[in-house]
Amino acid sequence: MTTPRIILASQSPRRRELLTLVGIPHVVRPADIDEQVWPGEQPVPHCERLARGKAAVLAAADPEAVVIAADTIVVLDGDILGKPRDVADAEAMLARLAGRTHTVFTAMAVARGPHVVSAVEEVAVTFRALSAEEIRGYVATGEPMDKAGAYGIQGFGATIVERIEGDFFSVMGLGLRRVVALLAAQGVQYEFSGRLTAAAPGPVAPSH
């Protein structure tokens, strides 16, 4: 058994905080891939493709490491709401989400050498009604500007979320329960001390 090196393929401070929360030591190395939606691509295949792509790119560059990657999208009326382009776009997104239920999909992937396993968590999130003044005030905090759907559930945005149905940590960007399961599928065992042990790598079938 060995202690694996963990790479987090994301520059998201929230994902780093979540791994640190459960004691998983890691280094941050963002993956540079094209994140455009392919013509006709549906939300779930899109976010899973991106998570797997990020993991695979870094694993190819460092095959001795174990790479954790993720991608989170917000979907309303079949539309993928990405990070807002500007203040006006953030306000428009929040106006659409106000008083309604949307879906957050977070795809997670773990790569070890050429083998990649992945899964997608689906969470229903309901916003309370919001006035135009409240929307402007929230956007003015700056919090929405780097987040899919223009909100962060772990910050000021917690005050506008009425209900969630599913994994809270997936809405933040990294479902910890799912990550531990994907690590196990790659032969990497997590202990509550945060210690990780890895068996010799072998062929692993992709997980969905």
Description of the molecule:
Helices cover 30% and strands 26% of the residues. It has 208 residues and is α+β, with helices and mostly antiparallel strands. It has one domain: Alpha-Beta Complex (Maf protein), CATH 3.90.950. The strands form two sheets. Strands 1, 2, 3, 4, 5, 6 and 7 form a seven-stranded mixed beta sheet that branches. Strands 8-9 form a two-stranded antiparallel sheet. A hairpin with a 2-residue loop joins strand 5 and strand 6.
Offer a few descriptive terms.
208 residues, alpha+beta, Maf protein, seven-stranded mixed sheet, two-stranded antiparallel ribbon, 30% helix, disordered C terminus
Helical amount: 25-40%
Q: How many distinct domains?
A: 1
What is the CA-atom radius of gyration, in angstroms? 17 Å
| Main β sheet profile | 7 strands, mixed
Describe the SSE topology.
Layout: E1 6-8, H1 13-21, E2 27-28, H2 43-61, E3 66-76, E4 79-81, H3 87-97, E5 101-112, E6 115-127, H4 132-140, E7 161-165, H5 168-172, H6 176-185, E8 188-190, E9 196-198
Parallel strand pairs: 1-2, 1-3
Antiparallel strand pairs: 3-4, 3-5, 5-6, 6-7, 8-9
Helix pairs in contact: 3-4
